Amino acid sequence: MRTYYVYILASRSRNLYVGVTSNLVRRLDHHRARRSEFTRRYRITRLVYVETTSDVHAAIAREKQIKGLRRAKKLSRIAFINPAWNDLLPEEGPEKLQIPRCARDDTRGEPPPGG
């Protein structure tokens, strides 16, 4: 069974990038090696939000849904899951990947109404 990740990367100035992948570590290496034009231009390298699912169609739909949200709503979701905006995949390596409990296995944590 394969796991799919819907993720948000951020820069220090909080520019955002939303993506979907089946190999999160490889995809983050791609972004951090500056092989993606958008993430290179805006120095977007920190993983600040991630959700998992085992359904590829649900992952793609969720990515589109998140991309369609207003910026304030995206910021609210990140703050709900990761209030300190810490990098969920630190330099120590993939074994240190921190996926918040409410973002795992299709159980999406929802911020309070209006948030």
Describe the structure in brief.
The chain is an alpha+beta fold.
Please describe what this structure looks like.
The chain has helices at 24-32, 37-42, 56-68, 71-81; strands at residues 4-10, 16-21, 46-53. It is α+β, with helices and mostly antiparallel strands and 115 residues long. It has one domain (4-103): GIY-YIG endonuclease, CATH 3.40.1440.10. The protein has a three-stranded antiparallel sheet with strand order 2-1-3, with helices on both faces. The protein is globular. Residues 105-109 have low confidence and may be disordered.
Give short descriptive properties of this protein.
single chain; about 120 residues; alpha+beta; GIY-YIG endonuclease; three-stranded antiparallel beta sheet; about 35% helix
List the helices and strands and how they pair.
Elements: E1 4-10, E2 16-21, H1 24-32, H2 37-42, E3 46-53, H3 56-68, H4 71-81
Antiparallel strand pairs: 1-2, 1-3
Query: What is the percentage of strand-forming residues?
Result: 15-25%
- The arrangement of helices and strands along the chain is EEHHEHH
| Count of helical regions | 4
Mean pLDDT: 84
> Which structural category do the helix and sheet elements fall into?
alpha+beta
- How would a textbook summarize the main sheet? 3 strands, antiparallel
Write out the strand line-up for the largest beta sheet, numbering strands in chain order: 2-1-3
- CATH level-four homologous superfamily name: GIY-YIG endonuclease
Tally of extended strands? 3
What percentage of residues falls in helices of 4 or more residues?
Answer: 25-40%
What's the domain count? 1
CATH classification class:
Alpha Beta
State Rg: 13 Å
CATH architecture descriptor: 3-Layer(aba) Sandwich
